[in-house]
Amino acid sequence: MHFNINGITHDVGTLDIRVSLLDLLRDHLSLHGTKKGCDQGACGACTVLVDGQRINSCLALAVQYEGRQITTIEGLGEADNLHPLQSAFVAHDGLQCGYCTPGQICSAVAMAAEVRRGLPSYVTADLSGTEQVLTSDELRERMSGNLCRCGAHNGIVAAVQDAYGRGAI
């Protein structure tokens, strides 16, 4: 089986069809940035991007994503060249223990793309509007699938707003 992860093709040979995408990343490819939190899709620590859309990798079977573009936190930036959102997380203390941070960042990258495409959320006031405004309530609703048990939510919101703007995206 062949997987395109962070722009690199990985040949993993024969893989048990029951292996989750999360376990493929962590156990078979040693990409430990994506975290295993609840293993039930409730916390968002395992969020990765597939073809630019966010998914909970703990709920996804790896075989479903063969040949698709998978991006993990390792693929967003490097130590000497951080993704703008990673820099904003540092600047705004959008992390405490850091366990949820990779999932938060991957989710926020996809969330910003959703807003740019005009996709509404549950709290979007104007469904016919062509421009989405990333208010604090809008951002919190869109990121509600990613939990932070340390209580760094205010820093996370500030980081995302700094990276993507308080107004229209």
Q: Could you describe the largest sheet, including whether it forms a barrel?
A: 5 strands, mixed
- Cα(first) to Cα(last) distance is 38 Å
- CATH homology-level superfamily of the largest domain: [2Fe-2S]-binding domain
Second-tier CATH architecture of the largest domain = Orthogonal Bundle
Q: Estimate what percentage of residues fall within beta strands.
A: 5-15%
**Order of SSEs, N→C?**
EEHEEEHHHH
CATH top level label of the largest domain: Mainly Alpha
Mean pLDDT reading: 92
Question: Can you count the helices?
Answer: 5
Category by helix and strand content: alpha+beta
The tally of domains stands at 2
Task: Kindly describe this structure.
With 169 residues, the chain is of the alpha+beta class. It has 2 domains: 2-75, Ubiquitin-like (UB roll) (Roll), CATH 3.10.20; 84-164, [2Fe-2S]-binding domain (DNA polymerase, domain 1). Helix content is 30%, strand content 11%. It contains 5 helices and 5 strands; from the N terminus they run ββαβββαααα. It has a 5-stranded mixed beta sheet with strand order 2-1-5-3-4, covered by helices on one side. Strand 3 (47-50) and strand 4 form a beta hairpin. Helix 2 (84-91) crosses helix 5. The longest helix has 16 residues, at 101-116. The model has no long low-confidence stretch (mean pLDDT 92).
Précis, in short:
The protein is α+β, with helices and mostly antiparallel strands. It has helices spanning 21-28, 84-91, 101-116, 136-142, 153-164; strands spanning 2-5, 8-11, 47-50, 53-56, 69-71.
